[in-house]
Amino acid sequence: MRTVILTGAAGNLGRAVAAAFADANLVLLDLKRGSLQDGDRQMFVETDLLNAQSVQAAVDKAVQRFKRIDVLCNIAGGFRMGSPVHETSDKDWDFMLNVNARTVLNMSRAVVPAMLKGGGGKIVNIGAFAAQKGAAQMGAYVASKSAVIRLTETMAAELREKNINVNCVLPTIIDTPENRKAMPDADPKRWVAPEDLAQVIVFLASDAARAIHGAALPVTGLS
Question: Which of 70, 120, 165, 191 lies most in the core, judged by the most C-beta atoms within 10 Å?
Fold first, then answer.
């Protein structure tokens, strides 16, 4: 049975991805437990993804319990509209780069050695469709998600010969309660349902995607 680590596991997409991996051992990482439960094949580990020691401790617990790590899904991240680039504060810049890119870096540094030891694995990151080009008032966000795409491509080039597939998905707006509240006049049927995005992630983490390396796969719904 495969072991899957999910970051941002308590969020809307994290919960959907966990449900889609119903046939796997699950290691659920987040700052707060929320509605997450422990079980025979599921463990929650409180983790600060911006703290390398916290991340390493969480990965060590996962390996201790389930012996190996087969899949890493870097779900944790965030979106924030910002200021024009020339007005962007260090605080806003650091927040976006940390929550979207540094979390991927910290998890990769902890998980990849375990995957190499175990003979391979799959890594799926969350980029953004918007990160394929610049957009006004989104400089920090676009830069951070663009970094995720470039990290994905770079890791794929480094690890493809070692039986580790690294890919990412590029969603548009995800249908969440928060987005519905923020955009009450929009039609959420045009957005990407978390469950649909989760199915794409599960595919990229499957043996059916073994020939795919470094892909940035758009998942746009009707938006």
Answer: 165
